[in-house]
């Protein structure tokens, strides 16, 4: 039984096809890059996996089951936006995660926050956007999940923060878990990818092991991507 | 899980509504105290203003309670926060139930506060006599009977507010299933459901009136109605609203469980 | 270890190269016990799977061996280490001489420069 399986997945909005016949499998224990331009369908796909949207047709199975309480227990999702109640303090946000996720490690979260010199009594609304994003990353990575899904974790951050984010991902994802990183900023993260999935116009264009692709094309994933999707 | 969800839902609503509770109580008590100061035209005017503010605050409590509940429903389930609400490992029916229960609890406390404030403002022997004459009841009828009647009316009112909130929830759920003009559709659907239900109510009252002359009089004449009829109508109202609430709860739950379409 | 990787070549191969150098230069001593794959990956800031692949390669070369219950160790085979050190040195020398040729310096001149400038160190 695979960790995540999609069979003939389609999603339409008002007659427009956003995802067309997606078939893919995500195995356990890999870091996978879901790569594509803006509007390729990456976020739609991720939302479907997380039960924020319902498929028009086809199915998504996580450990053999449709998205539901069981899949939400083992998926740690970091969306592009701030999904915390901004009126909460950091401490209250930690409590929220603790209350609803049995596999949330609050000690780990508190330690990671301390490393950033963040006072846990700070109100989220008073934090800078960059700090809010780091907070969410910490909360997500402090969960012992089977699948981490990070949607554009590096969007608009400075290089130091980018390194911090990559290090946090590498050092905190639990053993045997898989990580899906969705991004259009490929050169920043390709170093840590096991496998890559190219998505374009709502379809899967290519799936491959990252190193094999580098070997066969003698280029970086970023260059291969640019060549592939030259406008 | 339900208890935890309720905690957060209630906290969010009470954050604003409790302010109006305090203001309502403040102006009610102040008004009542000022009312005891006689012999002054100035104070009399101030007292009236104070009572006016008290009423305004009571109304605001109710209106804000409704608005806050609907706003919570939309924000927590269909805006940015929904990315968290829909990805915690809780069943949709539990999430929906929490919204309904928090509505019940907050409306109930709002009703209590309003009733208490009204009592503080207006409860007196003279006022009760005025009420009795309005209801064509003998002056010797027990005061408790009148009070019970008022409480019965309050309960019907409570159910009606719950019903309105549920219609709002259903409107939001159905309106947000589409991709464009979500709020417009929400309001239209909510309004349509409300009007539809009111027609059903009229129909039921009419049919009932065919069997009961007193009820028919209610519909046909503008005379002041007697207490027995009022009690009958209230009891009928409770039954009817209970059915509506059950129906819209079922409808909302089903529609919500089908899945959401979060932007 | 702040490794810098070239995204145009397989990462695991670059890891093998870097670790090979660490072993040959005795930064990782003979017979030294290596940290776990996960810890190594963290230090090198790479994917644990990539580190695992690199370690397998090194084991195939004989520079690393696994003792089932105790973990991975650097080889104590001095001959092998010296052999690989020599191979690496040869590679670098050939590259050096080619680079010199590209700027128009003959092999003999290059060796002379080496002795003059290298001897100052």
Can you tell me about this structure?
The complex is a heterotrimer of chains A (231), B (263) and C (121). Chain A has helices spanning 42-49, 69-74, 90-100, 106-115, 129-141, 159-172, 186-189, 210-217, 221-228, and strands at 4-13, 16-26, 31-35, 57-62, 75-78, 147-151, 178-183, 195-200, 203-209. Chain A is an alpha/beta fold. A six-stranded mixed β-sheet of chain A has the order 5-6-7-3-8-9, sandwiched between helices. Chain C is mainly alpha-helical. Chain C has two domains: 11-74, Winged helix-like DNA-binding domain superfamily/Winged helix DNA-binding domain (Arc Repressor Mutant, subunit A), CATH 1.10.10.10; 79-118. Chain C has five helices and two strands. Chain C has a two-stranded antiparallel sheet. The mean pLDDT of chain C is 89. The chains are: A alpha/beta (231), B mainly alpha (263), C mainly alpha (121).
Helix and strand arrangement:
The complex is a heterotrimer of chains A (231), B (263) and C (121).
Chain A: E1 4-13, E2 16-26, E3 31-35, H1 42-49, E4 57-62, H2 69-74, E5 75-78, H3 90-100, H4 106-115, H5 129-141, E6 147-151, H6 159-172, E7 178-183, H7 186-189, E8 195-200, E9 203-209, H8 210-217, H9 221-228
Parallel strand pairs in A: 3-7, 3-8, 5-6, 6-7
Antiparallel strand pairs in A: 1-2, 1-4, 8-9
Helix pairs in contact in A: 4-5, 5-6
Chain B: H1 2-35, H2 41-78, H3 82-85, H4 92-122, H5 125-134, H6 143-175, H7 182-211, H8 213-220, H9 227-257
Chain C: H1 11-24, H2 37-44, H3 48-61, E1 64-67, E2 71-74, H4 78-102, H5 107-118
Antiparallel strand pairs in C: 1-2
Helix pairs in contact in C: 1-3, 2-3
